[in-house]
Amino acid sequence: MPRENKSRREVLNAIRDIPSLKELLSTHDGHFDHELDLEVTVYGRNYNGKKVGPYVRLLTYEPNEVVMNEGEWGGNTFFVVTQGRFDVLVKTPDGRQVKVAEIEPGTHFGEMSVLAGQPRSATIKAPANASAQVLEIQRPALRLLRKLKDFGDALDRVYRDHARDAAIEDIKAVINLPPELIKELVPIATFRAFSKNHLLFREGAKIDRVYIVKEGWLRRLQPSNPNRTEDFIGKGYTFGVEGILKDGRWPYSATVMSRTEVLEISIRRLRKNIALREALARELSRFAPPPIGSLVSPKPRVREMMLSSQRAIIDTGLVDATNLLVMDMDLCVRCGNCSLACHKTHGQSRLLRRGIHVTRLEKPRPRAIQSVLAPAVCMHCEEPECLTGCPTGAIGRFARGQIDIDPKTCIGCGDCATQCPYNAISMIPRKPDKSAISSGLAAKIKDLLRLAPDSLPPAVDTTEDLVAVKCNLCNNTTINPEGSKGQAYSCEENCPTGALARINPRQYFTEIGAIEGLMMLDQTHATGRNIHRSDPPRRALHILGILLTVLLTAGTIWGLSRYGLGERLVSFLNMRWITGLVGLAGIFVVMTYPVRRQIYRKRAGPLRYWLLIHSYFGIIAGIMLLLHGGTRSGGLLTTALMISFDAVIFTGLLGVALYFIVPRTLTGLEGAPLLIDDLKQRREELQNDIADIASSSPEPIRSIVINKVVPRFMTFGYLLRQYIRRENLDQMLESARKEFEQYTRGLREEKDRKKLERAVESAATLRRVDALVYLHRSLKLWLPPHVATTALMLALMIVHIIQVIYYASR
Description:
Strand content: 15-25%
Mean pLDDT: 88
Shape: globular
Largest sheet: 5 strands, antiparallel
């Protein structure tokens, strides 16, 4: 551990000796020009009892002591050398560490991790024969120190130089240029960062620069084409190579879609170096982008949908996530177990099932539509905006690359929450009010059966002693104990159908991966397996379940046909005993699922696998016990047992069918996913709107609404139409307006026509909302009878077993 010099005088002396920081101590008429910033940075300050700062520490490192390690995440601090020198070491391909440079006094290092959210690019340590001293500066100091002209200029210069050198290092890995030409490339290359909507180049303009896209996304458009061809393209491509050897014109326009980093090479300066010009033209041509429009399918419908999803994924920022939570809405049964698991794990749910919705094609076929919801949960962005305003550095990028909040240093100011564009950070009381939590028997039963809809988080009406909370990938929780293999996420682990997945968006969204080049390689991030595309354990369980069911059924039928139910096989065992014991064992396995469903804070295997086991062993137990009963029902107790068992099987199969059919029907009807609470609120709004129109409108509008509109759309037949036709809402409303077109044309006033149209649209929409509400409810209506009949069956079975043992012992 480095030794900290806590003398503020020594810290001030160190700042005075650093050229880029000495302006912080400038004075005028005996007063510091930056007195408040100096106080917060060096001494710290109390704001309403909350400590902010200090942001700097003076640290001495002993010989060979490491400041930072290559590859580790450390985006919350950077350093300035005050005394001595530090060695810079990088790993060679064979794993050795090689010294490549020394850092002189007054030099900044480590700022790229802070500014660009990148892992450390090298190992920095004190030399073997001497100690050295640095000034460690925390991220929050940046917004204060940027006011200093020398510091701002130095930071900008260092950032651009390091970013340029890093881009050239990436280029070296994929092109064949001699070291001497690489050195000649450095002075004519410039690193640039462009903001959204910047026009990079225009169709028809002269090509005067080469652009190598390091990060970001571009929209290509060809206005001169009668069809105005457009597409989107990502990093890893080189634009303008055709202008290196001879003059040329841009064949299309390119506009920046999000913050984009490029390495820019001046063609005028490049042409002065013949060897470099020839080598770059040859090597970079391999990374020239394909012709505009060729990256997507030529089929019009497929092309339209792919471009739409690409635009949505880029514009919403989903593509810039390093660890994105997505929900496949065709698999989501709206049980809310993900939110409950988050609540149980963290004490306050960080997962609200609202967010960004994308409709995309899983495969290049018009019918391969996937409805994906990215809930309002932290994406752990590559360049997180939430970090910029925190005055204490409580929020930052932690050891595993995740964005996290240290509650001990969070002062509850809310800056991070207001900066986050995805509403993924919440402010809650540091000490939650537990008295508001319902603990009655009815509430516990509803929670156990998951019958009650998930309530929204309570509104925070206090302004004192708040703390910011967000998804931290379940780090520092019991679900990821020390030494555990791989990262587990409570929400994903506790989804019964595998609808949730933590993914890398560039790998998951194939339409995005297809428009990135190969020149720039991603840093690796800890993301889960894409279980929506490939889930080998799930496939294995299906195969084993089917094989076990078929083999046991075939073996049992063969045994019954040969030996019957009563003939002894071994000792007292006959087929009736064997089928009964196998069925009992199956029931025992089946009952482990509800037990697992209550485990949230520990790893117990993904719930989706337990549900599969539950289903297959339920089928096996059902077959065995039906064969066990034979053709005779027996006495009243046995008959009741078999009837209850049949009811359990029927309700369970009904649940399986509903879980398969209803989510897919919902995604076809609802467009963007909606919570049941949203639907109920929308239904109430529509009902009030219709009632208001009917009560406030003159004749004949009132009569048409009451006698024609409402009876037409509130019928059972129109409800069934929602499920059968599955037309989108716009089509349905257009059809509804045409039905009442004759009544609308009969009204003289334009305002009356619009009012009647509004009543028609509200009534038709209300029936669509009703259809969605009924679908939501159907996903849970099967569960109470299933649980009740299971409880009855278990009670009768216990009595039956006691009865059998009693008579067998006699």
